[in-house]
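Section handout 9: paired folding examples.
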Amino acid sequence: MAIARALSMDPICMLFDEPTSALDPEMVNEVLDVMVQLAQEGMTMMCVTHEMGFARKVANRVIFMDQGKIVEDCAKEEFFGNIEARSERARQFLSKILHH
């Protein structure tokens, strides 16, 4: 509902802070589907998320933070595709989430 309200204002950019937190699995998929559609339509979005599959699908750029500090700032292809070149913290994170 919040996404629909925001879209009624015809924004040029949307900000999302963990849009799927505290949602049941069915609602998570619905929200992510809407956001994927928005991305395909060219909506600029800045999104804080732990949904890496979603980030990998729609992001142009990944900013990876650890303890409030930016550790990585690169294109998604570089972040998800060139793991050896990532920081130690990013490698640890990616090694845990890319195997599932």
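Moving on to protein 2 of 2.
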Amino acid sequence: MRNKKWLALSGVALLATAACGGGEETTDSSEGSSSSDAKKEITLVSATDLPQLDPTLTTDSTSIIVTNNVFEGLYRLDENNQPVPGIAEDVEISEDGLTYTFKLRDANWSDGSPVTAEDFVYSWKRALNPETGAEYAYILQDLKNANKILAGEEELDTLGAKALDEKTLEVQLEAPAPYFLGLTGFPTYMPQKQEFVEEQGESFATAVDKTLYNGPYVLDSWQDNEGWVYKKNPEYWDAENVKMDTINVKVVKEVATGVNLFESGEVDYTLLSSEFVPQFQDSDEFKTRADARINFLRFNQKNESLQNVNIREALAKGFDKQGVTDVILTDGSQPANYIVAKDFTFTEDGADFREKYPDLQSYNVDEAKAAWEKGLAELGVETIELEFLSRDEEAFKKVNEYIKGELEKNLPGLTLNIKQQPFKNFLELEGAGDYDVSAAGWGPDYQDPMTYLDMWVTDGPFNRMAYSNDEYDKLIQGAKQEADQMKRWESMQEAERILLEDDFAIAPIYQKGEAYLERSNIENMYRHPFGADASFKWLDVN
């Protein structure tokens, strides 16, 4: 999300969150396609390193993109963001929507051994096993008994997943889930070969040769702070439709450096920041895209000052979001007064989830000042000093310095100390709750409002800020059990209102957009608004 997916802030996009460079000598994509016998190879820029390769432990958007391209689940998303068969060849769904029977195609792991139904069952049980420590285990909650297993009320063997034979997987759900097929392409749902995982032990997925792949590509190299390289997987069941031989990805944290590399022909894709938009906006290689990612401030209520709702309200209302999007980013991002994205989920008659509460938390200096003064009085203090955790990419620096300036100007007595960290360190500190305010982000894992909302329940794995509200928890739990779509949406809309308008638990900043440079001969680099940000299976150079 983003966590799915920590979904990245402004500087991190498609490959910027997903990929980094392999450190090999590379060729320009146009040269790579100069003859029918030439190897097809491109080089992409990433603003972050790759933190994780284990699908069970993956939580950030970078790792999710990588796993999406080197592993494959039962289904994957196509160019229209619709689930299409992956390892599953066909599925039969019962009339009540509770039982899915998947027939698996003949597919192999990268060592030549077959992918079996038991590989899926093992992977899902591994994620639910508390000894694994999988933060994304909750995304399996649609499976029968998954929540009870997570709560310690049932054994792993009661999970609603059974290998009827080597090529038949039966899955039982707790309730009908119209988004379930799309969800099976998420990393936590991807198969793993038990024998190999157990043989590798703690070293599993810590290096390219400590991993088995069943997707369109394998990782050929992976160097921290430098990058990694995708190579076409000859064992992939649909290898004849994978056109690229090599995809190199470089870690480049400074936008200007990425632009220079693009102009010199050393890379074929790079993100742009606002100062470069006027320079390139008339170029055929300049592109923009809208996104469903939401970037926001997370308030850690372990801090005594942030336990005060008036202080949180002041911080949430005390900076101009329009300045972030229109002055700093200028990449199509939009101010967000919500956590569930606009233009993301709709009713059958086309109504957007956002229509009921379009603005839950707006910029208002007068209200911010009043809340600030009230909060200071309640705490019996005149000043507050907070640590502001940030990633160290260029776009994060600019946005967070702006927010710091706005809040310190509008809220007298406030000091925000920005702590910039590399992406991996940022995730570790945020996950440990070692911060006061963090510049966070979330991209949806599947196409449903719940993907934005269930992480804020008490003690949820991505709560990470000691937030708790019994009414919120009840609304989310009720929505998960409600079959009526409109009643379900009403519960989620009220939960979102409580989160933002009553509790000011977080402060949305903007809904992400992107401006980037991409070679005009690149085709079929499919981008997705949920799940993995990008699919390279069909990627080609003309």
